[in-house]
Write a structure and sequence with these properties.
single chain; alpha+beta; Endonuclease III, domain 1; Nucleoside Triphosphate Pyrophosphohydrolase; 2 domains; five-stranded mixed sheet; DNA repair; Adenine DNA glycosylase; metal-binding; metal ion binding; oxidized purine DNA binding
């Protein structure tokens, strides 16, 4: 079909030289696909290079401890991806002898691998004719064919996958899948695409109907919750501090943080000071307390907006389980805390 031929021709002329494209080995392909969920290539590339340097094979990743994995992942966000990545590596290494399943159906059974990732690995590693459907694919197909299906609906993926499968050259699924994703990432971008230089500008239905900026249709809106975090950055007479591990399910599971007071709204010095005296450091006298940041740092997650303040708390004596700043820097933290440590401690 003309669409596929034009698309693949464009891809071969414009594709980026990315390390996971120069191999059919499922391990780096899997790593890249997990890392690039919710993450731009430019942001994900340094992490991919660090991971493959630290863990050249699935056996190396399987043998690593979780804190090392989380530390290397620090800043990529959506940390459940890293935990699932580690568990899947352990399963592949121990139960499958280091070999990934060679088909879509079995890849789908692995922890942390959904339909899109399974399709990507199956086509790129094993040339299985199974279409990938991600945000790029929704956008390209909805615009080219003027499809106004709401992509937030569960049925949309099936509809777009069927269309992509129909368009896909069955003898070259890997290149087609790479091409349509790359086209969405580089040319058919979400906002203000340059349609004047597009290879499809004579056949794209959305362009002819002046609907490019209306497609794809997505009506579902995320409910965003605001939370207010007050982090207590303690310093004892040896300048040691304390941290804790987030073990509850939810954001930042198994990452580290300073002692936390979560409040219903942004609170002032008096409120936080009172809470510290009531609930913390009963064995140590608080000598002084001050704000590192007068204005809260706004840290946006997909479903939550965190309003974060760091409070410097100086105490008398020494604190139990205290650590120095150099040791502190070896732990995996959420990026907002890591940045604070690097800048202010």
């Amino acid at each position: 079909m003309n669409f596929s031929n034009l698309l693949i021709k464009w891809y071969l002329q414009n594709k980026r030289d990315l390390p996971w494209r120069n191999t059919t080995d499922p391990y780096p392909i899997w790593l890249s696909e997990i890392m690039l969920q919710q993450t731009r290539v430019a942001q994900g590339m340094p992490y991919f290079m660090s991971f493959t340097a630290a863990f050249p094979t699935v056996f190396d990743l399987a043998k690593a401890n979780e804190e090392h994995v989380l530390k290397l992942w620090q800043g990529l966000g959506y940390y459940s991806r890293a935990r699932n990545l580690h568990k899947t590596a352990q399963y592949v290494a121990s139960d499958l002898g280091g070999s990934f399943p060679d088909n879509y159906a079995d890849l789908l059974k692995l922890k942390g691998i959904g339909e899109y990732t399974a399709a990507a690995i199956a086509s790129f590693s094993y040339n299985e004719a199974v279409p990938v459907v991600d945000g790029n694919v929704f956008r390209v197909l909805s615009r080219y064919f003027d499809i106004d299906t709401d992509i937030a609906q569960a049925s949309a993926k099936k509809e777009f996958a069927a269309l992509a499968f129909e368009l896909m050259p069955k003898d070259n699924p890997a290149t087609f899948n790479q091409a349509i994703m790359e086209f969405g990432a580089l040319q058919c971008v979400p906002k203000s695409p340059n349609c004047g230089i597009c290879v499809f500008n004579e056949s794209c239905a959305a362009l002819q109907k002046n609907k490019v900026n209306q497609l794809p249709v997505k009506t579902k809106k995320l409910k965003v919750r605001s939370r207010y975090f007050n982090y207590l950055v303690v310093a004892d007479e040896n300048d040691n501090t304390i941290i804790q591990k987030r073990t509850d399910k939810g954001i930042w599971h198994n990452l580290y943080e300073f002692p936390l007071i979560e409040t219903e709204k942004e609170e002032d010095f008096d409120c936080v000071s009172e809470a510290i005296q009531a609930d913390y450091f009963k064995d140590n006298t608080v000598v002084s307390m001050l704000e590192y940041n007068e204005k809260s740092i706004l840290h946006k997650l997909s479903h939550q907006h965190l309003h974060i303040k760091f409070w410097k708390v100086k105490i008398e004596g020494t604190i139990e389980n205290g650590i120095d700043v150099e040791t502190l820097r070896t732990f995996p933290f959420p990026i907002v805390i890591h940045n604070f440590i690097e800048k202010d401690l």
